[in-house]
Each structure stands twice: as C-alpha cells, then as structure tokens.
Design brief:
By secondary structure, the chain is mostly beta strands. Helix content is 0%, strand content 52%.
C-alpha cells in the first residue's frame, strides 16, 4: 500500500511563498512519477506539476510556470512543491499523487490546504 503524506500548507499573503512536502512510504520511490494536483472549492481537481522518477523531467501547468518548482529527493522518498508569487487563485487543497512506472494505479495523499489572502 502506497501512503503519501502532504505537509506545508497554510495561510500566506498574495505574493508570498510556501513549500509543500510529500513523504512516501514506498521503498522503490524512484520507480514512481510524482505529481501535485490541486482542487479549489467548486472546481475539478487539476494537475499542477509532475516530475519523473529520476527527477530529470518535469512538467507544469501553464498557470504556474515560472512561479512553482517541483523537485524530489529519492533518498528521502519525498517530493516538494516550491510555490512563489502566490495569487488568490492558487488557493486550494493540494494533493500529492504517485503512479508507478508501467502501472495505471493512482495513489493519492489526503491533501494540504493552501490559503492565499488578498
């Protein structure tokens, strides 16, 4: 069973920064592509950023390019999301997601809330 635990959410002012962390229970962490998704009230869950198992490849949603950075530390079995220049529209519950290579099984954390005050 893959367990994912997010942390780092909180209240920040517009223009501020936060770093989210997601720690995993899997021992073969480098075999998993990791992603951050978010879901705002009344909206669908959307992909924010994705990073490959080795960390060599990353992808970002257009609305966070240049502001957010995804990274991972396979030795710590953790993935991070550095969020800068936060906007009120970035407020959402942020979820950590994992998918093992060659698998279609999705694994989700419980989420961490990010609130951005204007």
């Amino acid at each position: 069973q893959v367990q994912l635990a997010e942390s780092g959410g909180g209240l920040v002012q517009t223009g501020g920064s936060l770093t989210l962390s997601c720690e995993s229970s899997v021992s073969t962490f480098s075999n998993y592509a990791m992603s951050w998704y978010r879901q705002a009230p009344g909206k669908e869950r959307e992909l924010v950023a994705r990073i490959s198992g080795t960390g060599e490849s990353t992808n970002y949603a257009d609305f966070v390019k240049g502001r957010f950075t995804i990274s991972r530390d396979n030795s710590k079995r953790a993935v991070y999301l550095q969020m800068n220049s936060l906007k009120p529209e970035d407020a959402a519950v942020y979820y950590c997601h994992a998918r093992r290579r060659f698998s279609s099984a999705d694994h989700w954390g419980k989420g961490t809330l990010v609130t951005v005050s204007s």
